[in-house]
Amino acid sequence: MKNQKVALITGANRGIGFETAKQLGEKGITVILTARNLDVANESAEKLKQQGIDAYGAKLEVTSADDRKALAAYIEDKFGKLDILINNAGVAPKRSLFVKTTVETTEEEFEYIFQTNFFAQVYLTNALLPLLKKSDAGRIVNLSSILGSLTMHSQPNSPIEAIKVLSYDASKAALNMFTNHLAIELADTNINVNSAHPGWVKTELGGTDVAPMEIVDGAKTSVELALIGEDGPNGGFYHLGEQLPW
């Protein structure tokens, strides 16, 4: 078990998270799938076990400090280290992403989005850093979005012109800042940190009727960044091997 790579994927009971766990598991990596409900997490892990993947379920409501602490203790006790952390869990506003609102964004929406998409990602990463530092090659992948790119939002005729949802976009921009700062802070360690834009994927969040990318392709960027070598990128923002502007 000592030389076996261990990966934690949050929000992995469905969609991109589940597919990411599957693809990593197919490469011989032990995967821990989290969900808000332990039974759901275990059911998802069992599906992968039936495919010959070494998979485990774990309860994690990412906004819960108690859950984060318990998860860290579980990984410490069960595996003694963590090689890969994929901060996949995230939420979108409860209204359409295609309705532009800035000044009308409510306090409740800001708090709902930022608690999950930013604060929880930072706190979970911090809780698991001691375990990642025990890895020979720790990798952190933050699931961001092209909607968090200030550069692309500012471009004339931007491909994301139609989507200007302040709460969601700002949470992903903040997550990108975390990636940048953490990568610099950990530059002298064995840990690489990058942001991933999965693409516009046919998920519950992305829209199964309008999104152009299949889930299998939406997981590829996270998997690539999770498996980079020591000469791989650090502190960048990527989609399918292409670096994106902040």
From TrEMBL:
<dbReference type="GO" id="GO:0016616">
    <property type="term" value="F:oxidoreductase activity, acting on the CH-OH group of donors, NAD or NADP as acceptor"/>
</dbReference>
<protein>
    <submittedName>
        <fullName>SDR family oxidoreductase</fullName>
    </submittedName>
</protein>
<dbReference type="InterPro" id="IPR045313">
    <property type="entry name" value="CBR1-like"/>
</dbReference>
<dbReference type="InterPro" id="IPR002347">
    <property type="entry name" value="SDR_fam"/>
</dbReference>
<keyword id="KW-0521">NADP</keyword>
<keyword id="KW-0560">Oxidoreductase</keyword>
<dbReference type="InterPro" id="IPR036291">
    <property type="entry name" value="NAD(P)-bd_dom_sf"/>
</dbReference>
<dbReference type="Pfam" id="PF00106">
    <property type="entry name" value="adh_short"/>
</dbReference>
<comment type="similarity">
    <text>Belongs to the short-chain dehydrogenases/reductases (SDR) family.</text>
</comment>
